Amino acid sequence: MKYLLLLLCLISPFATAVVETYEFGNEVNRERYHQFIDELRCPKCQNQNLDGSNAPIAKDLRRELHRLLEDGQSDAQIVEFMVERYGEFVLYRPRFNAETAVLWLAPGIFLLIGIVVMVMVFKRQKSAPSVSNTDSASLDTDEQQRLQDLLAAADNNKDKPNA
Amino acid sequence: MQRFKLFLPLIAFVVVALFFYIMVSRIGDGEYNPQDLPSALVNKSFPAFNLAQLEDPSVQLQQRDLVGKIALINVWATWCPSCHVEHGYLNYLATEKGITIYGVNYKDKAPAALRWLQDKGNPYRLNIFDPMGRLGLDMGVTGAPETYVIDHRGFVRMRFQGPINETVWQEKFQPLMEQLESEQQAQGGV
Questions:
Q1: What is the nearest CA distance from B85 to chain A, expressed in angstroms?
Q2: Which GO molecular function annotations are given, in alphabetical order (chain B) (predicted)?
Q3: Where are the beta strands (DSSP E) in B100-189?
Q4: What percent of chain A has pLDDT over 70?
């Protein structure tokens, strides 16, 4: 009994996929079904695909999907069916249009910004040594003298053995 | 200028923090709901259907039975706790304010639904019985309660998820209902 419980505890985290059996007319449809439930998002849940969701609506949509597939509908028709009812939200890979443009373009834009910033930083680093050179050169004679004195004093201190 | 640059990360942080603070507080007020999805149905005509009437299964209801009036279409079920909360307000809307409400009895059992209407009052002009959630699917319903507003041409103008109460009515429904009425009058006058 104890071992059985332990076993259950071990396997339960993996048992997230919903077990439902549908009969398919052919193997291709079965594969398409699995591909679709993997890529369609449950409209009730914030981030779960139809495969992983136990929500009643996900169950309905799986049933509907099965019906559409067996009906001989094309992939495009099925996607259209889902989007018509639940919007682009149901697609984990939304189609490109005005509404989803931000989703598609944002990564590229951020990458571009990153590259620009990187280039700017590198450019600055290249010119940086010359800036510091001119800085030290711009010390006037008084300051130079003080600097020398300080360095000399530091050297002297170092040479002194600690009593 | 150089000084100012030092503060850029702080400024960026404050902006982001403010953004999240506002979002979280709006979720707290119920003003913003991350589960709220824009309905794909808005500004399209209400989906076609052919389903029995809850009260009298021999009557088949169709899309055209809902067209002609500005109305609410309320998706409800006896298994839905929020529908209990909402029901009293729907009664009030129907009797006191004279709002036309059509019901979609969603994935429910007819005897339970009929008993509910008898016990709690019936705010619905008619009830579409949708035991399999077929119509619900075409409407893009994700759960009950949900309420749709249709205009006099039968076009869906708003979808609202969750129970209606006084606040929600004042804020979301009232302005739209007034707008739709003036639209109807403008079109009726032509």
A1: 21
A2: disulfide oxidoreductase activity
A3: 101-106, 126-130, 146-150, 156-161
A4: 79
